[in-house]
């Protein structure tokens, strides 16, 4: 099927709503959440889509976010927070687009659904049974495997961090040779890795979600007299422009 721009925005907004409700996406997406979004697409647009199609569409947008993240690191590039665009000087822009024409849609122009992509994919690569690796073929979500981690709901920032190196080490007994105790150098390396993992986990827990007015979605979607496409376009614009979004909600409440 061909995803229309307003349908893509709708799907990304629904995933954002799941995240706002406390669902973690750093481990992937549960099939129940993909089915929920697919059902909402049908109810709102009358277009039947499957959980697999939603999953594959999210992989596409994740790929776009990875490309945007790389382009933001271009030499001489600057980031315009107000328009969500990567700005290059005219001469630099022409030279880069000539060599990389596919990057034109992301340079010196507002990036479509940038706020939603940042909120969903900013934690990096998803893992688990619905991991969205760029090298994976399109198709149905990956099946369950032993030890696969499912998505979970946050219990709060005070939830203790489980150090992966606190678990006892179980050697493999079917090997031909058994290693002795760890050398002092190896112990130091393990300790350094443990500290690094702890710092990364702490940083992730301290990350705050993208600042979006909680009433913005409901305020925009309840506006009458406009087509669905126009309403979704307006919502996408207000999500990309925080100040205008806050002002719109305040005006609607007045």
From TrEMBL:
<dbReference type="Pfam" id="PF12776">
    <property type="entry name" value="Myb_DNA-bind_3"/>
</dbReference>
<protein>
    <recommendedName>
        <fullName>Myb/SANT-like domain-containing protein</fullName>
    </recommendedName>
</protein>
<dbReference type="InterPro" id="IPR024752">
    <property type="entry name" value="Myb/SANT-like_dom"/>
</dbReference>
<feature type="domain" description="Myb/SANT-like">
    <location>
        <begin position="2"/>
        <end position="87"/>
    </location>
</feature>
